[in-house]
Fold 8-oxo-dGTP diphosphatase.
Amino acid sequence: MSTCAELHVAAGVIRNDLGQVLIARRAVHVDQGNLWEFPGGKLERGETARQALCRELHEELNLKVLEASPLIRVRHAYPERHVLLDVWQVHRFEGSPIGMQGQPIRWVLPDELSRFSFPAANRPIVAAARLPDRYAILDDDTGDDAVLRERLHRLVSRGISLIQLRARRLGMPRYEALAQYAAEYCRAQRVTLLMNADSDWVSGIPVAGVHLTAQRLMSLRERPLDEARWVAASCHNLAELRQAERIGVDLAVLAPVQPTPTHPHAVPLGWQTFAELVDQVNIPIFALGGLSPDDIDHAKAHGAQGVAGIRGFLR
Ligand SMILES: Nc1nc2c([nH]c(=O)n2[C@H]2C[C@H](O)[C@@H](COP(=O)(O)OP(=O)(O)OP(=O)(O)O)O2)c(=O)[nH]1
Ligand SMILES: [Mg+2]
């Protein structure tokens, strides 16, 4: 049998001012026919992914890309071909899109994407399209729930829309009260709150999902919640990332990228190793450890979804 060459494809998650993303329906007779897709196509000889993205979006939609940044790279083996989907986020463009090949197109809110049928490779792309580029971790270094509530309000007022509640020092009745409060508050504010807690415990609380510690992740044989809720995980190496991919987590945090005062003995990965690890799994990954929102562009350039942080988001 001949070895299957990897087909390099550039695709765009195009956003409009309403926060909707553009999807198109593939023709019936082509590979992955009739399914919805993020517009794009194969790289031509000598082209970079970015050049191919611009050319394809012009050919397929009559759009001119003005601003784009890398979102996620996904490798997938279909029975008849292996693809590398190089997915970009298009923030600014000129023109109003039309299906130049007669393909139906639609603008949909990111949270509506799960209602459409995409090719199998698209699962992590849909997750990446739904996620922001910053992930704030609410940690109880003080053990004071009033301080935690104030920090939660501050994060939300700054436009943070993805938050992890990690309050290990509060005792049980207080943690439960805080979790209940935070879940309801975040739901009302349209903020995705993930609880760093046991998934069984979380099922009684109106929270958007769970965040697994690396230890909990490694002890699981399957995804602990169904697809209606988010599952995130903390990872530090390739074995943990692979396990996260195996059980189907939606997003991961990879740490520590830089030295951090909270983990003075942990050896930082550095950006180069971070990028090498990210490239080996199909999961949206946030960089964590000694970083702040100022590092987002740098993180994206190294394959990250964005940056996660504790103190960096409260300053
Ligand atoms: N554009 C795009 N392709 C996808 C997605 N998901 C997915 O698995 N693919 C696969 C299907 C195809 O095997 C390959 C893309 O090839 P394509 O046939 O669209 O490429 P193209 O636009 O250059 O097509 P053509 O000019 O050769 O007809 O990637 C997606 O979201 N967008
Ligand atoms: Mg195409």
Summary: The mean pLDDT is 94. DSSP finds nine helices and 15 strands in the chain.
